[in-house]
Every structure is written in structure tokens, then in C-alpha cells.
Amino acid sequence: MKPVWDEAAARRCDSALALRAYTSRLIGSDPALVLHGGGNTSLKLDGTLYVKGTGSNLAEVREEDFTALDLAALRALLADDKLPDAELMRRVDACKRVSSAPKPSIETLLHAALPRTFVEHAHADAVLAVVNVARGAEACAAAFGDCAPVVPYRHSGAALARACKSVLEREATANTIGLILAFHGVVAFGDTARDSHNNLQLLVGMAERYLQQHAVTAIPPVPRNPDLAAAEQLRIATSTIAGYPLAMTVACTRETLAFAQRPDLAAVSQQGPPTPQHAIFTKRVPLIDGDVAAYADRYRNYLERTLGAAAAGRIDAAPRIALDPRFGLCAFGVNAHYAAIAAEIYLHDIDIITRASTHGSYRAAGEQDIARAELEYGGFELRVRQQMKH
Q1: What does DSSP say about strands 48-52 and 66-70: parallel, antiparallel, or unpaired?
Q2: For residues 83 and 237, what is the distance between their CA atoms, to the nearest angstrom?
Q3: What whole-number distance in Å separates Cα of residue 132 and Cα of residue 351?
Q4: E strand residue ranges, 152-305
């Protein structure tokens, strides 16, 4: 059951920030909106922007997990387009009201750029399934009208914030309640907590209705016992490429078997994930032919042409997802916890890609953008391995 607004619970919130935290938990508790560290929310109050801190789980966030920043100072930074991104983000951190507060979300400038009091940003599956196609702007016009203009993909930070501000100023109407972010998700806003929350639900509902109009009825394969021996052989080969033993999760379901048997699997699965952030856990593309060595060669070439020496020692070339009709899906991770996360994320990716393919040709962000996300948001496996050694 999706979490729904509870008026009694809302009334028990004794401050605007407590209410902000309550509605954030509603969003974070729905996996169709937010997956593993994704999504962020904010509140503007008396010249201060309260934004979810980096690393906080949106499903469990409390008032103390929000970082207070000087809103005017943030907007002044955003207006200075001469500052390099690295320097800009350093100065964002300096806008904190309390220096010891959590590091603010990477999307802090996006929240500062938008004029409304409450802002929600989610990677909603249904919205991604509408926008992530070759003719995404046309699909969004049909699904959302002027309720949510489309923002072309920009990397998180100043570029995305400026793009959102520009599109809103240029295209917003009296009906506008949010923005659709290509390859990134959805932003909703409002002047009250309930309005903002409801607007997010409205946009997701519009996406669902559009997708239902294009739904295709299919008879999926009957689940069977997965070939665990074949999956284990892949785990061993993948671990060799990674340079350390990887844990594995197998998901043999109707959905994974159907996806692994798609005649166009090479076309849809090798585009990339619905949002670059998913590649942190799943890599840019899954293994689909069982040849781990060839996959690693291709991935090294991709890393070299997109990141050069920056990827060395930080991103290995081993797959994290394998698709095969013998077992459906298997996911690999630095430990069992992260293997399960990779599997869960790719199960959502399968749903998004499958639904997108019913109304258009699925598209992902460019490989340079995905590689940048892998580099900037990744690195957790190195930290986990170091912790496991102690």
C-alpha cells in the first residue's frame, strides 16, 4: 500500500519543518518514487532554505536531517555564471546557517532557484517511463500539458538549477505545478505542504494514465527454478574482473524472464539506465550474452573514452547486472546488501523500460552523463571493502 496523507498525523507536526519532514517520509516510503538515496525535498521559511542533507534516507528523515542555508546567498551564487561548478558547490556549503549541519543535497541550488515554499524532487518510475523515449517532449505534452514543462537533461548542481529556473520562467502557466526532468524524474511544488505533496501525486497520476492508454497485454513466461549453477559461474567470472569476491542476488520472476527474452534486448538494455544515478549500483549496462571478459573490455573502453584516467582505481569493469533466460536476472555487489539493492533498482528499470517501450523508443541519457554520475556519486564500494577489512 502506498503511504497516503494522514490529516491527524499532519496536525501533530508542531512546525513547518516537522510537516516538511512528515511529507518527505511519505514520498521516501514509496519505492515507485524514490530508490536508495534518491529524491530530496525542501522548505523556504523566513529567508532560509531547509533542504534534506546528503546521505539521509528520505523514508526516515527528521527535522534534524535538514540543513538550513541562507536563501539570498544561494540565489546570488546561482546568478554568478562565471563560477566553476567545483567552486560553486564549495560556496554552497559555506551558506549553511550552522557549519556543523549535514552536507546539503546536491540539488540545493535547484530548490533555491524555484520560487515556491515547498519543493519535492523524486525519480518517479511512471514519469521516467513517459519522458525517456525518443519523442519525450511530445509524450510529456500529451501526458502533462502545461502542468509540468520538460527540462532537458542537465547534471545535478548549478546547470540543472539554472535550466529549471529558465524553463519555469519561460513556459509556466497558471496550471503549472511542477517540472519534468528528462532522464532525472519530476519536481513538484506548492505553497503548502499538502499542496506540494498532492501536486507530486497528481503528476505521477497523469503519467500512469498516459501509460495505461498505451499498455500492451502480454503473456509473460511462467517462472521456473533458476539455473543457479550458471549464475554462480557468472559471479565467479565477474569477481575475477572486479578483483574481489562479489555477492549475488538472483531474481527469477515473470518480469525478469520476459525481459531477458525480449527480441530487442540488445537495443533497449544497452541504452543505459532510466536515470544516471541508477548506474552507481547497476553500472551503465547489464551483461546480456554471458561473456564477462568481452563485457569488461567494452566497459574499459567506455570508461576510457568518457573519464580517462579519472576512473582508474575507482570504477572497475565488472558487470553488476546479468540478464539471461536461464535465470532471469542476477545482481552482483560488494556484499549481499548491495547486491540486493542493485537487483531492486534494476527490477524498477525493467518496469520503466518495458512501459516506455509501449509508447515509443526507449532512450537513456548520453554515456558521458552516465559516466560522470558513476564517478561523482560512486566510490561506496571502496569504502565498504575497507570497512569489511577491519
Answers
A1: antiparallel
A2: 45
A3: 13
A4: 178-181, 185-190, 247-251
The per-residue DSSP string of 5-60 comes to --HHHHHT--SHHHHHHHHHHHHHT-TTT--TT--EEEEEETTEEEEEBTT--TTT
Distance of CA 184 to the CA centre of its chain: 6
Same fold for the pair 7-213 and 228-389: yes
Domains of the chain, by residue range, sit at 7-213, 228-389
| Amino acid found at 294 | A
Tens of pLDDT, residue by residue over 116-132, are 999 999 999 999 999 99
One-letter amino acid for residue 371 of the chain: A
Q: Are 309 and 302 in contact (CB under 8 A)?
A: no
- Whether the CA torsion 284, 288, 292, 293 is positive or negative: it is negative
Query: The domain 7-213 belongs to what CATH superfamily?
Result: Class II aldolase/adducin N-terminal domain (3.40.225.10)
Least confident of 88-102, 164-178, 183-197, 240-254: 88-102
Residue 180 has pLDDT above 60, yes or no: yes
Q: How far is Cα 349 from Cα 345, in angstroms, rounded to an integer? A: 6
SS3 percent helix, strand, coil of the chain, rounded to 5, is 50, 15, 35
C-alpha cell at 294: 568481452
Task: Report CA torsion sign: 104, 107, 110, 111.
Answer: negative
**Which candidate, 266, 259, 261, 270, places its Cα nearest to that of 363?**
270
- Reported in sequence order, the residue ranges of 164-205 that DSSP labels E, i.e. its strands, are 178-181, 185-190
Q: Are 119 and 192 in contact (CB under 8 A)?
A: no
Task: Please name the residue that has the C-alpha cell 549500483.
Answer: 281
Number of other CB atoms surrounding residue 225 within 10 Å: 7
Supply 360's cell numbers: 515509443
Residue 228 pLDDT level (bands cut at 50, 70, 90)? very high
Long-range (24+ apart) CB contacts under 8 A made by 36-40 are 36/281, 36/341, 36/344, 36/345, 38/122, 38/123, 38/185, 38/275, 38/277, 39/120, 39/121, 39/122, 39/123, 39/185, 40/105, 40/107, 40/111, 40/121
| CATH class entry, domain 228-389 | alpha beta
